[in-house]
């Protein structure tokens, strides 16, 4: 770390240096239709690192010696211009007029290829380019995960409810795989993961993702989504693909101010009015969200830049709870529960839970900069800091549910029960610095160091530790429950060179990476976990989220070294072949083995190409999965003595894991295949890609194990001080198949009108590998089989999280219209069906063999039908550089299906499923947004 900070300081000094250059190229870049200057346009010299960006008015200066140069001018949403320009000794003025891009396939991409200048139609594998800086003008969503969910069909992220820490950090998927099976980059550099482990019953249970929402959307220029296995190119996690977030580098001032809230109606009293269909009987306005983002860029010297973004977001809570129909107060002879409630001047609404989006307030700052040291080498630095504080609720503690031994004391604090809350304080920081350029006869190099850290601290409020009642004079109602941290330091050195005289061009690249990961757990304060009075027989610790125990605390680290080589050959002008090899070795579990990727693209015609790829990949078990430990202390009577025992999640190195024969974690491995085609048929663009991803030794979080009547196991657990235990383990193999397609048509109409239609879809089929009997093949230990706990190792609900709990298809249709200063966007998204499989239906271990009957309210399985949400935005250019947009997401107030059985509704409280979601359950969102660019 000390060397890294010294390195950063040297680079910072470079930014403050002053350099003198000869006269060069300058001018302006304007929109061909409006005549207005375009900020943030990239102007570069092909074959060199020399380049600059236009300022807020579209002006640029590029200092060059006299001579002839091939200048490339590119901006997201515009056609690329490549032109030979002669620079005179006295300087040259050159203006460029950019034409709005009709073909998105012509956009240049940097992800998935180390060769310069590949466009979407030229890449051997599919890459989506999301011009986020433009998309945000027309959407109400304010964070990256939600924006991508409604724009990119292969990407899915639904906010969770009543799921502890996962309420505060949205897990995200690509191609229906886990959040930790997609690699996230920022400016092409590996981004660190969150310290949060998804251990609750959400769709991504047992996984660890990257908190992309910690990066302000205001700071992002575009996002490239590589939809193909790329572990041989980029390393661990890139099984489903790669998401590369490219930060802004424009100069000038820009920003946005947005506000919105949910205006909706939902069936709150569905359980009460069960026989009356699906009435939307309650109107709600909540979840007010305000966002302020500012982006300012300045020049450093003549060719460098420094871009700074600040953003603050305040997201209000939402609540779509149902009316509780169960027992609220302890039974009183001669009075019904409703009579007791009424006698206190209350209604059942007073006992509502809070089921919906958590409240989140926070913001951050992002810096992105670069400065040439000379004509061939530049230094660069980027990074950011983000902090957000959240609040989410758990299950209501009704007076009837408070243990009898402590009711008197609890009722003194909470006479009508209480709704405990989990608070979060999440800090995310990162910094990357490096030098890159050209050395030794046209070899490109890039030396960089990236450090990132995520800190997730838990708090509990409006709660109580039952064991304190009668044991301390004033029981606590708020607690510090401890937290987790994860940090990562990555050093990369990359070299590449283009040989133009080998066939039609050969790009050679190779490099090395050294990475150090560290995961830690901080214990909560004593009152958050301690049992102060074992004789009461009540659960210890803060209600809703007992704190981390001192035995859970600790810090663990590991390192790994990786080397790779990457070749990309233009055999002919029509045929490209690429290949990559990678080898990594980890300090804790050893080598991942040699991984490879081979891809090719062939142009049948100038605008028609076929492409395909074959690759192997891997995902190293995260440190979080290896060492996460969250246990609660319980007291059991053993041999007539009250004995403390622990229940919860144990690491694989623990004694309870050895009792059940749980092995140490090893890396997941994958085999991927893809084939596709791209075409430009006049104004019509079409891309179609099919894929298959086989994953071996996939890591899952088991359910709880007990001795289950086995005396030997019971004695061993008692000796280890444990009772109910679960673990992370390599339990299953899976296969993912899918088809992804994008069809786009854009045209300019007479009198300045323009239209663009886009239809994109992803069709996903993920399955757990099954045996000849149709049941999942589970890699269980002999001890678990002998004790009859195979269903606790991996059950039907676990299976459904992989196969059917996320939409099996998503289709997005978008129409963009422009005329003069007026614009409109209409978008419809069809989310495919999702299915909930109840783990208690043990007679059917495969959902394929199970006949669902949603009309039978005794059936605990349920299929939720496809739904379509519709968004509409109208925008108007109020003045030069100022745009006002108003609109609504889900304008027709669509919700996913309501539960059709009371079991999952939890006595009416859960009107909508918290286990499986298509697009959340918040309803219509109306908003206004002001964007400006000076």
Give a structural overview.
This protein has 934 residues and is mainly beta. The chain has two domains: 1-101, Carboxypeptidase-like, regulatory domain (Immunoglobulin-like), CATH 2.60.40.1120; 102-933, Beta Barrel (Maltoporin, Chain A). It is built from 14 helices and 43 strands. The strands form seven sheets. The chain has a 22-stranded antiparallel barrel. The protein has a five-stranded mixed β-sheet with strand order 9-14-15-12-13. Strands 1, 4, 7 and 8 form a four-stranded mixed β-sheet that branches. Strand 28 and strand 29 (608-619) form a beta hairpin. It is globular.
SS field, number of helical segments: 14
Helix percent band:
under 10%
Radius of gyration: 29 Å
Write the CATH homologous superfamily of the largest domain: TonB-dependent receptor, beta-barrel domain
Terminal CA distance:
39 Å
What is the overall silhouette?
globular
Strand content: over 45%
Number of strands: 43
What's this entry about, in short?
With 934 residues, the chain is mainly β. 10% of the residues lie in helices and 45% in strands. A hairpin with a 2-residue loop joins strand 12 and strand 13.
